Input
Amino acid sequence: MSADNTFHYALSSNNAWAGYKAHQNPQFFPKLAGGQSPEILWIGCSDSRCPETTILGMQPGDVFVHRNIANIISPTDINTTAVIEYAVANLKVKHVVLCGHSACGGAAAALSDARVGGVLDTWLLPLKTVRFNHAEELEAITDEKERIMRIAQLNVEAGIKVLMNNATIREAIAERGLEVHGVFFDISCGRIKELGCGTAHAGKGDHVVRGKHGQLVFGQDGEAAIAAAQ
Output
């Protein structure tokens, strides 16, 4: 199919989808046009194989979304920070989800010593740092696909630590029990699994901050977790 045909096919598919949704539920689009109140902020990779609303089995209006190359969370990225601030402070989402995935091109590039070129080399620097910080573990993995999968998971863990130190997120955890989750999408089977990082996993040597809905526990490594108020 040519590029022109692909575009027109997409428009035709949209027309068919809109007609089906309107027939199925006449109030679907009018209600959608009235505003949004998503409960999830999804931060994922721009990879075309990871469409969050589809793989979550959800509908338009359910998920507020930010995607970039290799789902990198950088504290100096004003784009990501603006999305987080709006979703958490204004939309009052209940969950922030950072999702990595298998067969990630950015992860593969970070494992290579070759330059990608252009701005991409700069963008992938945080992922390169993950590689160097876990060099011994990654070099011990002989299977290339498994190595790419592992650095992608480690990238999510690193991103969660950045999210947990975001001021807007920290305030929302303390004040209303916002939950932060690190997950991984396996393209080969279509399933998402939790990686065991985020608000549900407290570390040792903790500092506790109590809020109305629970208590925020900051570990020595900068990670935090939410627990029930005592």
